[in-house]
Here is the input.
Amino acid sequence: MTTNPKLHELRRTLLEKFPEAHAARFSQTECFTTGLPCLDRIGLPKGSLIELVAPRPSSGSMLLLTSLLQSASHNRYPLAFIDGHDSFDPQSAGQSACHELLWVRCQKAQQAIKAADLILRDGNLPFAILDLQLNALNELRRIANPVWFRLQSLTRRSSAVCLVMTSRALVGSPRLRLHLGESYQLSHLEQQPKKLLHQISLNVQRRRRSPLPDQAGEHSGNALPDG
Here is the structure.
């Protein structure tokens, strides 16, 4: 199999931006500590593909995303954000929140899936966010279950967490599926983000106690094809 030059380029970027991640593997505790109480109370198991469903734009997904970026910078853990529709405004999180951030800008869902595959395959970042909230439904329907099984297998091998943000349940058999419930109103804009974060409605829709066996097939070790 020929070596993909894009993979080498991404690995070089990861090594340059996060050298400490290559120098030491992740701790062996069961759950990843994000620094956000609303997530850490639930517990995000390492080595897991986790889905966060935000059915309404006002349910707090952007607040949760920017809070995660700020927490990653404050607690100094490297984080990859794969922007599935090139819609993220870094100003919304603040310049300091981007210090520990690898931002991958994509136009289509298939590009974002390929980027997630490469980052998880590299195995040196402990946390990745794959944001597919604004991608068209017809794009998302083309993502077959074997693709999700492949990403699950890669997260398990690297002990990383991959948080997939969607507007409807999409991921095939995630280890954990979270649901953002009640919507914020205009009156909430007067409150501080930290206070709003404590009010966020985050519920567990499903949880598997153990990871699925590798179901990606005999070609699970190969990267996703171009096209």
Notes: The CA atoms of residues 150 and 218 lie 11 Å apart.
